[in-house]
Amino acid sequence: MKKADVFEFYRRLAEENPSPETELQYVNPYTLLVAVALSAQATDIGVNKATKLLFQEVQTPEAMVALGEEGLKRHIKTIGLFNTKAKNVISLSKMLIAEHGGEVPRDRAALEALPGVGRKTANVVLNVAFGEETIAVDTHIFRVGNRTGLAPGKDVVAVETKLEKVTPAPFRRHAHHWLILHGRYVCKARKPECWRCIERDLCAYKPKTPAPAAE
Which domains, from first to last, does the chain contain? Predict the structure, then answer.
């Protein structure tokens, strides 16, 4: 995609949604970290349902450790891989207390050192909690980057690197959310809704999906 087209691509997303936000519900940086860690291989809707009561009771690492692994499991048992995730959340909470005074660090290496926290989770926390210009490439962003020609790459790191290179400065803060929301609601995996896409004339995807026939 040409440089001017990339700028226009983001400009349209920004015009349509000037202040995009994560759809995960959270109270503070700690609960955001927990929510993102729980969201791996799960939907935001599913995570929000599981954490609604949890985050009323638990908003700090200390409270999470006090709740304990079994107590946490009772809240998140509807989420995939909940046993492993519960173990990781308790472990990362203990590590935050021991090494960071109970605070979520604003540092990628420190975040990725936490149990169950990978590059994507760290990027989301840095972006949402601290305003860093990071782009966390999930399945939606990976698909949009490749399908549209915005940032083609063979793996998530390649797509992230390309996005960081081509995304114009005015759009870097919110690029992560614009691309996720576009992939989630318009540029869908199985059947992209090209007929209502604001980017269709810029997009490299050739077999544009026609509008469904009127009933």
Answer: 3-20+135-196 (1.10.1670.10), 29-130 (1.10.340.30)
Contacts of the segment 197-200: beta carbons below 8 A, 24+ positions apart:
198/12, 198/13, 198/16, 199/9, 199/12, 199/13, 199/148
Q: How far apart are CA 41 and CA 155, in angstroms?
A: 17
Instruction: Please give the structure tokens belonging to residue 206.
Output: 């050739």
According to the model, what pLDDT value does residue 166 have? 97
Q: Over 80: is that where the pLDDT of 213 sits? A: no
Q: Is 138 labeled as catalytic in the residue annotation?
A: yes
DSSP state of 163: H
77 catalytic residue (yes or no)? no
Active site residue: 138, 154, 155, 165, which one? 138
Task: Pick the catalytic residue from 73, 85, 120, 162.
Answer: 120
Output the CA–CA distances (angstroms, integers) from residue 100 to 104, 108, 126, 183, in the order listed: 7, 14, 16, 35
- Tens of pLDDT, residue by residue over 20-59, are 999 999 999 999 999 999 998 889 999 999 999 999 999 9
